[in-house]
Amino acid sequence: AEKLNEFILYALFIGGSIGGLANVYAQLQKAIGATETIFGLLEETVEMEPVQAPAAAIEIGSIAMNEVKFSYPTRADVPVLKSLSFNLPQGQTLALVGRSGSGKSTIASLLMRFYTDFEGEFTANGASVASINLQSWRSALALVPQDVLLFGGTIRENITYGNTDASDAMIIEAAKEANAWEFIEGFPEGLETKVGDRGVQLSGGQRQRIAIARALLKDPQLLILDEATSALDSESEHLVQEALDRLMKGRTSVVIAHRLSTIRKAHQIIVLDDGAVIESGTHEELMQKTGTYAELIKLQDVMGRGDREEEKSDQL
Questions:
Q1: Pairwise CA distance, residues 86 & 68, whole Å
Q2: What are the b/e assignments for 105-144, b being 16+ CB within 10 Å?
Q3: Structural domain range at position 102
Q4: What tens digit of pLDDT does each residue of 233-260 get?
Q5: Would residue 25 count as lying in a domain?
């Protein structure tokens, strides 16, 4: 009996250890992934400035891409953009529409010059963008993404990130234009309210409006909106969309949208599929063609009705 008890005890010890191997393996895989990320960052090359380009204020004006072809360095054999061409006059809005993986966010990355190794032409006011100082180029644009990045400081610090010399009057005006001042004013500490790491103290809609206020205060020449309203409820989306309309007015803008309500007013709409342009025109023109864009609009309308009915049932 004593040996049997010892056997059972040892078996339990061994069984528990074997059972823990799965957890050890999972932790090991996480560590390997984190290590690969760290080494990837360490291997990143420093962005080099063209020697001939002065670091000065620039005038972006109209922007255009002509026969642009691009593949990511890690998968050079897989084309992401195939002969992309468009011309966006100054002050107009270009909307990019397509299913996930069609190349929309890749275009945004090229606009921000995160990648420079591509075929074709990318110009601003007729001049190659590659000849423009990188810091000057990025200083002239603003991005409002879906997943807004806020720093763990105050609301004031987050809004003034692109314009640290702004006065209180300018900050408040930008917050009002972004439909953000009402909730900011409601906090006991106002602009000095701490938002927490990545803005965890704020709702998704509030974070988006802080990002819009930041962009308004920076007053960019080129605005990039990357699915800025796709993760919001209908009430927050309405407030954010109002703020975006003010931000985009008279400003050269590129809109990447999941919810098609954000791009109906665009001067140009490009429909992408597998990195290629399959349709282009205005909202009215594309709806008359009854092609991919019209199908996406109909699908969005059906999903929108479902979301509204779900919100109503939640309120009952």
A1: 10
A2: bbbbebbebeeeebeeebbbeeeebeebbbebbbbbbbbb
A3: 63-314
A4: 666 777 877 888 888 888 899 998 766 6
A5: no
